[in-house]
């Protein structure tokens, strides 16, 4: 049976091939890759207080909970192979529509834009450069298999297949060196949460640049699979008595350490693939340990354990089942408070997505999720101390490739969502539960 891979789903299309002088080590010439996520939630208002919002925090997942109506990405790469065996790559990724009306709130979202010419007014996250870096490999004075890079990039990104939440990356500007399956990188980012999303100005007048030193070794074969190891040491500059206090009574962390072990294999002994990871983070690295970027604006004493396991089983020639499990616990013994929750926050999420291939151009898909959020005390964030969340989505999928990761596709869907807290607001006019429907289109190439 053909095995399905997330990586294999993104196939490069070469637009103009140059002449290679030696064995090609990178795709010669120009190539373009892209991603598009286009969403219409029928009847939903995107007014600030009316939207369902992106369910950040692993409460629910599926098309209905995606963050933006329109998200478009293009990655342009120039590759060259040289006569002496060296090679070069220039990578430029642009993105439109992954916007938030205020970066201080990760559950914000954009609007249904029209054609007035002023679509970007009042929004951030319009057309932006997400990656722009140069990489040189196999230079004659380096050992074979060595490359160096500098610029802006997402380094070693990993995300869940149902939640779509990134749990590992280093996102920022920096440089690095890699030798075969091991590497060392230094990446810096400024905390975007201190910016006003409408004016672009610093809210508190300070800039406290954060830096992560990444060391990693990937592809160690053992126990019938492959192990990856990550270690990140983070620091933060310009922290002094004047800007060290945080809103929850603690102080901003000026350093931290995070680590992760990842194990990849078939689908737990069956046909397919799976990835299992455990991460640890302390202080500045407390956001899942190895998820570094402008959001790494943590408090001194924050500590987290993050566990995830996801993959796709090829059950029959027609039936594939994707699953994702997450457990995330974050606490702070210094101030007994995390994000306003006494004794910290614990989250559990499990999702399952059966996909049944009717023919090469049509499949049926369901997304079933359960989540539990455990807070320090009753009334935190205006909800119960322990709250359960349920969601169920069913969707006919029109596609040119009916595999689990086959794209492009257009997917009408209907979603039912429910909370054990009858006062939990999925939307202002829907407390406790809600039923919605819409259409999602998605493409990658």
From TrEMBL:
Keywords: Cell outer membrane, Ion transport, Membrane, Porin, Signal, Transmembrane, Transmembrane beta strand, Transport. Residues 1-22 form the signal peptide. GO terms for biological process: monoatomic ion transport; polysaccharide transport. One of its GO terms (molecular function) is carbohydrate transmembrane transporter activity. Pfam families: LamB (PF02264). Gene3D superfamilies: Porin, LamB type. This is Carbohydrate porin. It comes from bacterium 19PA01SH03.
């Amino acid at each position: 049976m053909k095995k399905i891979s997330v990586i294999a789903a993104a196939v490069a299309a070469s637009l103009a091939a140059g002449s290679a002088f030696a064995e090609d080590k990178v795709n010669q010439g120009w190539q373009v890759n892209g991603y598009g996520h286009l969403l219409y939630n029928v009847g939903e208002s995107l007014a600030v207080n009316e939207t369902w919002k992106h369910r950040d925090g692993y409460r629910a997942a599926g098309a209905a909970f995606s963050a933006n109506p329109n998200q478009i990405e293009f990655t342009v790469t120039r590759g060259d192979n040289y006569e002496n065996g060296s090679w070069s790559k220039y990578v430029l990724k642009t993105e439109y529509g992954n916007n938030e009306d205020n970066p201080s709130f990760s559950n914000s979202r954009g609007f249904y834009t029209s054609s007035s010419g002023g679509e970007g007014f009042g929004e951030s996250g319009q057309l932006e450069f997400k990656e722009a870096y140069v990489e040189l490999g196999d230079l004659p004075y380096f050992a074979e298999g060595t490359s160096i890079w500098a610029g802006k990039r997402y380094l070693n990104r990993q995300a869940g297949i149902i939640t779509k939440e990134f749990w590992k990356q280093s996102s920022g500007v920096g440089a690095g060196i890699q030798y075969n399956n091991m590497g060392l990188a230094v990446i810096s980012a400024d905390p975007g949460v201190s910016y006003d999303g409408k004016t672009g100005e610093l809210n508190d007048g300070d800039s406290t640049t954060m830096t992560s030193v990444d060391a990693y070794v990937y592809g160690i074969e053992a126990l019938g699979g492959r192990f990856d190891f990550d270690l990140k040491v983070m620091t933060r500059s310009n922290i002094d008595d004047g800007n060290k206090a945080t809103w929850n009574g603690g102080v901003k962390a000026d350093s931290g350490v995070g680590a992760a072990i990842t194990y990849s294999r078939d689908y737990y002994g069956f046909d397919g693939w799976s990835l299992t990871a455990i991460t640890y983070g302390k202080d500045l690295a407390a956001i899942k340990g190895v998820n570094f970027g402008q959001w790494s604006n943590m408090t001194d004493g924050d500590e987290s354990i993050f566990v995830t396991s996801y993959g796709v089983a090829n059950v029959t020639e027609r039936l594939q089942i994707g699953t994702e499990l997450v457990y995330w616990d974050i606490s702070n013994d210094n101030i007994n408070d995390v994000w306003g929750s006494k004794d910290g926050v614990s989250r559990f999420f499990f999702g399952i997505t059966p996909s049944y291939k009717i023919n090469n151009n049509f499949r049926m898909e369901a997304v079933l999720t359960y989540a539990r959020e455990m807070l320090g005390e009753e009334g935190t964030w205006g909800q119960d101390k322990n709250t359960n969340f349920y969601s169920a989505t069913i969707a006919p999928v029109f596609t040119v490739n009916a595999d689990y990761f086959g794209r492009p596709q257009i997917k009408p869907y209907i979603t039912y969502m429910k909370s054990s807290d009858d006062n939990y607001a999925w939307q202002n006019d829907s407390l406790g539960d809600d039923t919605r429907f819409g259409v999602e289109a998605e493409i990658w190439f």
